[in-house]
Specification:
- The protein is mainly β.
- Helices cover 13% and strands 32% of the residues.
- The strands form six sheets. A nine-stranded mixed sheet has the order 16-15-17-18-25-24-23-21-22. A four-stranded antiparallel sheet has the order 4-5-6-7, with no helix packed on it. The chain has a four-stranded antiparallel sheet with strand order 8-9-10-11, with no helix packed on it.
- The two termini are 38 Å apart.
Length: 358
Amino acid sequence: MIFGCRDGFFYAVNINNGKELWHVDHQVSWVISSIAVKDTIAVTGTSDGRFVQAVNISTGKELWKFKTVSIVWSSPVIYNDKVYIGSQEGVLYCLDLYTGKRITFYQASGKIFSSPVISDSLLFFGTDQGYFYALHPSKYMHEQPVNIKRYVFWQQAADYYFHYANNEKIKIYLNANNYETINDKQLSEILNKKDSAANTVIVFAQNYFPKEIYNDNETSLLRGYLNAGGRVVVLGSNPLIYEQDSSGNLSGFNFLRADSILNIHYGPNDLRSMGGLVPAFATEEGKQYGLNNSWTSFLSLDPKQVDIVLGKDENGKVAAWIKKFSDKKSSGFIQMWIDPDFVGDMSSIIKAAEYGFN
């Protein structure tokens, strides 16, 4: 018999005489989810320890441990050598049974304390906000890459795109998912490290670029980092279009700067380049990168200007995209869009930022 307790231990006992065979110390973290077992592997979640764990049922030796953002009271289910389990941060994880590596994940609305159930190729679970979900197998996997450096740029300053401190909400969400916050000085230092650029991704939660990283030409720190195989993700209007005064406030627009640094031509150097607010929709490749199905955007482009089209607006122009400056698979400048007024599901940011590193 294998079970967990609120004393912080995960036990195995002889079913005939009750003698303990082994125990695993979760260090005072409650083990209240039921145990899922397949072959020689037992899987459970834990509370304050914030992880999912697999052990050998004969010895209790740990096989793997997957860190979560929050507590795991949901019980796992094993199906086709995959572990499905929910957590308090509202994420339903799909993990490889034998390695614990994240295969993909789904961000729900509300905390997941219920245990998933699988029937007829659908996975069912509920959340504490009263939602009941049925998920079908995804065409696209979003494995968690290893050995990459994750950064989120944010500092207390003016933001010309996000409202209501949504940039800070994004920063906090990314921090919880192993992204290190960097300021303008640290950003310049990272962009200078050309030898490690190919294993680095920088998400700009604060939607502006410090002047020190672009300098209006192709020899800038930003372009050099991209040339070396780095990845940059922007979540709103391209920060290169903004002109700042000496106090860091918005003083105007310069649409030609994107052309001189990224070879991206928005159009004339006036507000006609904005193109108006239009609905946009993810392409199949955009869905592969984890983008949401639809959003509102502007600054659309001719498809010939980019390397990968992630989304198109209702006029057929490119609304979300990747521009590559290196032959590295994971490299490029990624333009995606998060609503500036309401930030809900932010999982698309991580999926797009990390897709293709493996």
